[in-house]
Amino acid sequence: MTDSGKANDLLSQIPKGEGKGLPPVHLWNPDFCGDIDMRIARDGTWFYMGTPIGRKPMVKLFSTIIRRDGDDYVLVTPVEKVGIRVDVAPFVAIALAVEGEGEAQVLRFTNNVDDEIVAGAEYPIRVELDPQTQEPTPFVRVRTNLDALIHRNVFYQLVELAVPRDIDGQSWLGVWSSGQFFPIAPQPD
């Protein structure tokens, strides 16, 4: 079957729900059917056979059936599982709403497929540093084992909200959300 046929077949297998949440992809264990030419770029753009998928409803539909198995990203339905490439993360956090302040602060992210994520124990914020350049790459958990890259402008908002806190004898700058403190950078000397 061609890649185009695989994508159309995959779409036809997505169960039609009542809009009551995401499909239970964690329960589905069909046979692996190989990789398809689908890629999610760093900026959150989905590509199929080298062409951007321009229809947001289609991207949103595909985003409901993505799962991470180890280091691999797959699109999965009850009867088929196919591999896709993800450059950095399958989602991008593109907006931030801040409610409250201090330890009572709540950070609400919106990602590129209109999911809302409230950072907290279940949906932590983390920052990876490039070992050579020390450039930060911030993420927020969106679903089990799936993250959103925090867009640069949103990360600047987090930096503006950062407060110092001592963690294990080291001073960090970080943000509070839902009663959790998330370190984002060591405090400069």
Automatic annotation (TrEMBL):
Protein name stated in the entry: Proteophosphoglycan
InterPro entries: DUF1285, DUF1285_beta_roll_sf, DUF1285_C, DUF1285_N
Organism: Pseudomonas segetis
High-level lineage: Bacteria, Pseudomonadati, Pseudomonadota, Gammaproteobacteria, Pseudomonadales
Domain DUF1285: 23-87, 90-184
Pfam families: DUF1285_C, DUF1285_N
Coiled-coil portions: none
